[in-house]
Amino acid sequence: MDDTIRAIIVDDEKKSILTLNKLLDVYCPHVKVIGTAQTVSESIETINFLKPDLVFLDISLPDGDGFDVLENVDHRSFEVIFTTASDKFAIKAFEFSAIHYLLKPINLKELQHAVDRFEQVRGDNMLNEKVNILKDSLNKNYKKIILPSVEGLILKDLDDIIRCEADSNYTIFFFTNKEKLLISKSLNNFEKILTDIHFCRIHNKHLINLKYVERYIKGKAGYVVMQDGSHPYVSESRKADFIDSLKNYGPSLL
Prior knowledge:
CATH superfamily of the largest domain: Response regulator
Number of domains: 2
Order of helices and strands: EHEHEEEHEHEHHEEEEEHEEEEH
CATH class of the largest domain: Alpha Beta
Shape: elongated
Largest sheet: 5 strands, parallel
Number of strands: 16
Number of helices: 8
Structural class: alpha/beta
Radius of gyration: 21 Å
């Protein structure tokens, strides 16, 4: 079976195109660059004509942005790896949408990791959903998240998540419909992107949605009563932050 990945590089800087092309040629030889483009219009034409498996797409282009490219191509059976300057809000948005990204200047190990991630989700046919969530998240309109489960990518509403529980390098998500999902990322990852969106890390094992807190039982071994009947403990080291978060979210709970 041919494992060649046919790729296109879209970037407004020729030097960036040459650098990425060289890195791929040396360190990811199964990724074959079949074309390049530097503008939105050129990108659309190149993608439609060459029909790549993967597009390395710069967000900022001279005549628009990467979203203009994705919204106007006819050929849509490809995956995207965005390239962007360092921006904590953009990184958070990428995590919500499960879209791969590379920060400039591109790091070799991160490039190899992004290509590996592409191969894991290749053919999931969720490009439209991913792009919509990415756009919403970039506007700080956090409503949905795409979760990488052991069975593939799954789209979920944030308001349907009651709590998350660490399970080694995985995370178990608990939902309002009683569903449980094992997600192939650590709880630390979700703490970074969810804690300022009415979620709070209360214990090394527990990240909860404050919306579903019914009671907080104080004490040295304090715990929270959640709407699903669970009783996750609040660790001593995280108690002060939790109480502050709870006061800000729902003062009547204290």
